[in-house]
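Handout, section 4.2: multi-component inputs.
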Amino acid sequence: MKAERPASDKNIRFLLLGFICFVLTYLDYSNSAYIKKTKSVINDGAAYVSYWIVRPFQLITEIPTVYNEFSLLQKKFENQEELKNTISKLELENNFLKKDLQKYLSIQEQEKNYSRPSIIAKVLFNSKNIYANNFLIDKGSLDGIKVGNPVIKNNNLLGQISEVNFKSSRVILLKDLNSRIPVLIGEKLYTGIMVGDLNETSGVKLEFLPKEYEFQDQDKIYTSEIESILPKGIYIGKLIKQNNNYLVEFNYNFINLDYVSVLIEQ
Amino acid sequence: MAKVKKNYNDLLSVLIVLIVTLAPSISLEAFGDIQLNKYFNLEFIIIYFFSFNRFKYFRAISLFVLGIIVDSLIGNYLGISSIAFLILYKIAIYQNTIQVRSIFISEWIAFGLAIFVVYVVELVMFYLTGVKTDIQAFVLNFIGSFLSYPIFWIILKYSFLRLERFSNDKDE
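Output:
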């Protein structure tokens, strides 16, 4: 029988672990070189492992859709000749690949609108809770990504890179409490800072606006430039007037993200 | 020499908490923007339940590692979730040691006290590291976690008691 450890041993171990936690937090907060690489390895590992744990569950949730599509196809082709079946299967496969290619090419085409080169990245893990509103992508420092790089989808700014690991990065969404983006608003290009705010209906609010400003309904919001980090003119959303208040309406749904583009430095 | 029986309870509990952490990512894709984790913290409920009821499912070291993984996924500074989990574990064990009678109400109140301490520690650590937090969201999460504890208590108590009974019967 395994002997039970004395209580004092357990207490010492607990205090030691607690101490290690505080040291880790301090080293991480102070951006210490001792922990930077280790953290990158931990983050990469956690991101990819969680992706592979989550993937089967995601596939399970897709089963009803796949089943419906499958039964429809079965009904459609069950009376046809075997050859026709083969042809249609090949066509389906071809269409799927074409769509995939088109999707990929259209993403690349959209990103050509910006003078900066871009990298297409896959979303590995979504994190949305009271602590944070961010997601992990499968590209990191080895792919040329740096902290502050803008992340876009269909020409809309989603957020910025907040943390870079070797083969993964964290994207902080515009709606995150710690997100700060300099913006230009409307035809008169008023400057301001877009700040994430959970209490706002749209999830963001505008701060540091000029002393005198006048917004119009449907005024568009674009990014303002931060030298070598954020290019000017990426579309963010538009202002909607609601009961004498202005809400920011985003053009893009922040959920169900599959692929995103990261604008990197030239 | 008696064969030492392997105990997978620790691994099982860590997996449960890990799946709970990963669940929002699955639910975001499957059900859209339903944010149940905004209203209660299931990780705290599970850790407290297993620690308080002395099912011996958790060890301090596994909670430490689990906290590091959670921080890495959420994007917190490393160690914040670990310290929260460890404090919750220690308080739960201490409360269990000093309890005189096993009444659910006392366990429920003790849970409320324990998670209150943990939320305060988390908020202090976020404040010290300069991370902006929404206190209102934390208060809502605390109230939600406290109120939903009896529901999860019933589910966990009966499912895991059955599992334990089953394994005890098998041993005999």
